[in-house]
Amino acid sequence: MECHYTFASFHFRFSRLDVLSLNCFTFEYVTGGGLISGITVAAKALKPSIQVFAAEPKGADDAAESKAAGKLITLAHTNTIADGLRSWMGSLTWYVM
To answer: pLDDT by residue (tens digit) across 33-82?
Structure first.
């Protein structure tokens, strides 16, 4: 999560476009939650009003189910061709999301 925060912080600050002044939202995918957690923390630190949206395939939507249930849920099985998104969200990143 920390290295994703560092990447996002540099990206938002030093992009050729002033990303934070042009956009009020960003879309990120969710696997274990490290990337979206790091990006969220960096984006919110630089622009508190920014909205971060998460995306994941329907057959591997443990983050969406966890959000709806209000607790971390681990799916017994994932069903998606997006093999990079077949892992589960981590307990540490769940608290950030």
So the answer is: 788 888 888 888 877 888 888 888 888 888 888 889 999 888 888 888 87
Query: What gap in Å lies between CA 73 and CA 63, rounded to an integer?
Result: 8
Ramachandran quadrant class, 28 (left: phi over 0; alpha: psi -120 to 50; beta: rest): beta
Distance CA 51, CA 55 (A): 13
Contact yes or no for 45/70 (Cβ under 8 A): no
Pull the structure tokens for residue 81: 């061709």
Whether 42 and 13 have beta carbons less than 8 Å apart is answered as no
- The strand ranges marked E within the chain are 25-29, 51-55
**Structural tokens at position 18:** 């002033």
| DSSP classification of residue 9 | H
Both tokens of 4, joined, read: 């994703």
Among 30, 40, 34, CA closest to 82:
30
